[in-house]
Amino acid sequence: DAGAVRAVLAIPRGYAADLAGGRTAVVQILVDGADSTSATPAIGYAGAIVREHSGAVTLSALRRAAEGGGA
């Protein structure tokens, strides 16, 4: 391989501020689908990471709300 990029995770400016402000925070993954042997696992791993992170953010927000700190 010539070191070609197969996947990119794009996290936009303002992501942390959106998260801290209780707003929807968006990320994007761009995957080169030319080689499905590499693309399929990359998409699967990205989905798992997003689900885990989303769960942690939701849990944190619920704990803050329960403690009276708001969402």
Tally of DSSP helical segments: 2
Mean pLDDT, rounded to whole units?
87
Radius of gyration: 16 Å
Provide the structure class.
mainly alpha
Q: β content, as a range?
A: 5-15%
Which residues sit in consecutive blocks of at least 5 with pLDDT less than 50?
Answer: none
Q: How many runs of DSSP E, i.e. beta strands? A: 2
Any idea what the shape is? elongated
For the report, how would you describe the main beta sheet? Answer: 2 strands, antiparallel
Task: Specify the helix fraction band.
Answer: 40-55%
Distance between the termini: 47 Å
Arrangement of strands in the largest sheet:
1-2
Give the topology string: H per helix, E per strand.
EHEH
State the gist of this model:
The protein is built from two helices and two strands. It is mostly helical and 71 residues long. It is elongated.
Structure characterization notes:
The chain has a two-stranded antiparallel sheet with strand order 1-2. The model has no long low-confidence stretch (mean pLDDT 87). It has helices at 15-20, 36-66; strands at residues 7-10, 28-31. The longest helix is centred in the C-terminal third of the chain and has 31 residues, at 36-66. The chain is mostly helical and 71 residues long.
